[in-house]
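Support request, priority: normal
Reporter: lab tech (M.K.)
Component: structure prediction queue

Hi team, I submitted a job for Replication initiator protein A from Deinococcus terrestris yesterday, and the status page still shows it as pending. I've pasted the exact input below so you can check whether something in the sequence is tripping the parser. The sequence length should be 446 residues. Please let me know if I need to resubmit or if it's stuck on your end.
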Amino acid sequence: MKILPRHHDDLNLSRLNLIVALDQVEMQEWNVTYELGGRIVRISCEAGVKYAVPHGLDSDVSAALINLYIDEGMPEDGRIMVAATALLRLCGWHKSGKYLGLLRQCLERLHQANYTVSGGWRDHPNRRWTHAKFHFIESLNFTTLDATGHFDERSMIIVRLADDVVASIRSGYVKPLDSEFMSSLSRPRTRVLYRVLDAARINPEDPERQVDTLTFPVLSWGDQCKIPSDGQAWRVIRALSAPHQELIKRGYLAEVVLTGRGKDQTVRYEFARDFTQVDPALMRKFREYGVADGMVRKLVREHGEAFLSDTVTRFTALLTSGVLVVRKTRAAALMHLIQHPDDYPYPAPAASEVKAKREVMEPMLTEPSLEEDFAGLSPERAAERLIRRLDLHYKKLLKAADYDLLRFQVRNGHVSPAEVLKAGIAAVAAGQREQFIVELRQAANQ
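Reply from support: The job had stalled in the queue. We restarted it manually and it finished. Here are the results:
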């Protein structure tokens, strides 16, 4: 099984936390001021006219866009393109009309909200603290079926992230993010709190260092989570009570201790020392076989990800070939294989694996055909691959509507993605990119 790279989060965004840790709000603005390391930090947010400040689910969307931007090779202009349904998947949301509607709202809030950070934005390569003013999404374009503006399964989205955010990510001021664990948390506010806590553990001037305990005045922590308190600590405690319980139950926090009275209350977080981040792809595979997340983390600490990845691949092959017959549960059978690896045979390599090894050893005399790039893909996956390949060469020429139409045509079998890509690459080689776009649009309208 291929292990995918871990996801990441931008340290400026997650450490400052620009998303209100509440599921629903009606706030149009907020601002906080605090001292950190002898510096005065001021952060403010002003929402757009029609929307409240970013909150709750908006954290899922911002985290997904950051990882999409990194996966796309961190383009200097901050521009990324994605299908609405693919973005739902990256957010860990269900593919439904309800969540398509929520996605549109989240993107609008992140596009329209205006953030100002004074003295708290880290220019890490130059070891300086700077001022930043931006919209998280500086430009937003998308396609819809009609004038209502509702997303549908064809909708394509093009966003441009803020220059400050792009510079922060490209400078490497990022931290690992266990997005699989985050998306498995039940409530938006719990996911926001997890993201904020995971960043607060890290020394902003030395990201390689992190702590196992954190202590804050409750009211100050409420400001960090952007929870309106009116100077009353109990409001913050009540808002975070359920998230605290879930993070303890899920094994991320060992303990949350409240001390003091009234405005002078403090909260101390003790992180579970044995909480282990696990590659999302590996975690998903174990879940498919019914192994609990906590057990997977324990197994990773004991055996390491490489051994477990090889073992689960071996287990799948033994099941598929019929060599292994499960008598109780697949989880129990997999656990027995992990504990007694020498009791089981190693499956013979498949013909495709033998061929792959031979091709690695023998020089390739010809380039693989473009048809092979799309072989075995579902129409939706084939459309996404075509669009991403074309975007490398036609980023400034193709519009959101063009991507929408291409996706529709591929999904419905009207065009061959391999043939379109072949024509597009040929046009690039011949210096005829504009002509290719014209012909592409003409063919779509016939």
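Residues 373-444 form one domain. Confidence is low (pLDDT under 50) at residues 1-5, 351-368. Let us know if anything else looks off. Ticket resolved.
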